[in-house]
Amino acid sequence: MLNAKIPAGPLETKWSKYKSTVKLVNPANKRKLEIIVVGTGLAGASAAASLGELGYKVKVFCFQDSARRAHSIAAQGGINAAKNYQNDGDSVFRLFYDTVKGGDYRAREGNVYRLSEVSGNIIDQCVAQGVPFAREYGGLLSNRSFGGTQVQRTFYAAGQTGQQLLLGAYSALERQVALGTVKQYTRHEMLEVVKIDGKARGIIARNLTTGKLERHFGHAVLICSGGYGNVFFLSTNAMGSNVTAAWKAHKAGAFFGNPCFTQIHPTCIPVSGDHQSKLTLMSESLRNDGRIWVPKKKDDPRKATDIPEEERDYYLERRYPAFGNLVPRDVASRAAKERCDAGFGVGASKMAVYLDYADAIKRYGTIEAGKRGEENASEDEIIKMGKSVVAEKYGNLFDMYAKITGENPYETPMRIYPAVHYTMGGLWVDYELMTTVPGLYALGEANFSDHGANRLGASALMQGLADGYFVIPYTIGNYLADDIHTKAIPTDHPAFVEAENKVKGTLDTLMNIKGKHSVDHFHKALGKIMWDKCGMARNAKGLEEAIREIQALREEFWKDVRIPGEQNELNPELEKAGRVADFLELGELMCRDALQRNESCGGHFREEYQDAEGEAKRDDENFAFVAAWEYKGPSNFDLHKEKLEFEIVHPTQRSYK
């Protein structure tokens, strides 16, 4: 039933052959075709800008007050591309290999190779837009290392790469808005997909300022709404990030792929108390120069700076000497949890480890002294110069840490602990990025396609821009070429009326519950269940309990949630309520997916499936497939399996030792 539509032929020619043989839409016909884009992050903004540039009539929607407020701005560390500027052995194939291996062999080879192939074009595109990537002394673009690789392929703009890339895409988008090819709807939230004759033909959106429901037609609909990490309540995602657009698409017939594959980022500021509503990510780029350690003595009460070198356990360097502090995120996260669970954690909560820059500061200071010819520089002078270099590379991250914790990370090691970050699961899509609903596409983090069970750092920005700039402009034409005779369908069509009435009925129900508990009460309760039983480690007993607990919580939500205010006005609590209602359904599916996957791989760690050293134990014979779930009704999902074929990179035990 699932047809991934991977082109035939050698891996390295699949995409070029596809582009050469795909159906095209001529410029005059593009002007007759309307496309809806939901979301204005890197995937949505780049797709809307590119499709507008091609001549399509585009409508783009975001729930923020500005398209440039999409959560892509929060990506700090960098973007991968196989340029090999460092001349250190990188190539398209090595990026492809690292990505498949880093995803624990649970991604499609065809999609990943295409991503690697177009990665270099992304950098050229962004430089042309004026993105201020860091540069070497001679003016060439600089690169740094990220987890899961042994080369330097990550392009960056200090510690704000996502923001700069989004501003580039946003500028391209606003140019098309000014030219009239793109119409922009801010403060609008998509609440339903409209299907006519089995095809996606539009959406129902709520104007969040007035509360009014609106009908919008499109020959095709693109979901570019990001991931669903906020199902855990505490995560590194922006508070508004949600699953609603993707979940409405799922309930309209789009299969959901690998929902249990959640990425836990190892480098976050630890939880400080129950008052918190989100967590702060410290970029993985900090692992490029920082060293991670814990005291060798359990429950060591001393300050970090009072613990001598010989009494420190640099556990990643000890366990994984080939990659050290740059192991992939899933490996680093589990290792931190293991040390803390064993009693070696630091800080007041003892649920943290140290990220230390003392060695990097000295190293950079020594290099700087050599450059200046100051052979007799004192240690204090070397440290001062080293701090300046570190400040230039990572200064905004260090400032952020200092503001949040009140500690100076130049003087004392940062304290970090893993937290929910990215979701590798998402809407199932084929090679063309189309879901199982014709005309409905998913791009970027909203789809499942490129990262398998674990995403390498700096690959999210790469995928979002690859999908928007370089993939969807080709693949959507293959579908729309057969649709050029379809005129715009009036929004008084019965399908639009029915969809709007369905949305209104849900909103009416939510407003009329008038219960005792706030939306956040239910969201926090769901988050605790998910973190405890479907978080960094899972087991069958806990997952079975979680499913029952989530079902009971969902029932309570629909009886006892309290939403103040009115429906037809600006009402942030009503917005949150709709999103949490969707999380309560998604959370159950995530647990069901984790329960059926009797193996450990990437971000999915089942305690029953680990080797003697505590490493993830995959089962390639029985679980080398994409789990694609079909919605059949409340608590009722059918599992479809897309078998993964590995012709080039043959699955082996993943080792970073």
Helix content: 25-40%
In DSSP terms (H or I, runs of 4 or more residues), the helix count works out at: 17
How far is the N terminus from the C terminus? 40 Å
- Main sheet attributes: strand count, strand direction, barrel closure: 5 strands, parallel
Strand order of the largest sheet: 5-2-1-9-17
Alpha-beta classification? alpha+beta
The backbone outline, from C-alpha atoms, is globular
What would your notes on this structure say?
The chain is of the alpha+beta class. 39% of the residues lie in helices and 15% in strands. The strands form five sheets. The chain has a five-stranded parallel sheet, with helices on both faces. Strands 11-15-14-12-13 form a five-stranded antiparallel sheet. Strands 16-10-18-19 form a four-stranded antiparallel sheet, with helices on one face. A hairpin with a 5-residue loop joins β7 and β8 (213-217). α5 packs across α12 and α15 (540-560) runs antiparallel to α16 (572-596). It is globular and about 80 Å long. The two termini are 40 Å apart.
List keywords for this structure.
5-stranded antiparallel beta sheet, 39% helix, 5-stranded parallel beta sheet, alpha+beta, 657 residues
Task: Produce the secondary structure layout.
Elements: H1 14-21, H2 27-30, E1 34-38, H3 42-54, E2 57-61, E3 79-80, H4 92-102, H5 109-129, E4 154-155, H6 161-179, E5 182-185, E6 188-196, E7 199-207, E8 213-217, E9 220-223, H7 244-251, E10 256-257, E11 262-268, E12 291-295, E13 312-313, H8 315-319, H9 329-344, E14 353-356, H10 358-372, H11 379-405, E15 414-423, E16 426-427, E17 440-442, H12 460-480, H13 494-513, H14 519-534, H15 540-560, H16 572-596, H17 620-623, E18 625-633, E19 636-643
Parallel strand pairs: 1-2, 1-9, 2-5, 9-17
Antiparallel strand pairs: 3-4, 6-7, 7-8, 10-16, 10-18, 11-15, 12-13, 12-14, 14-15, 18-19
Helix pairs in contact: 3-6, 3-12, 4-5, 5-12, 10-11, 14-15, 14-16, 15-16
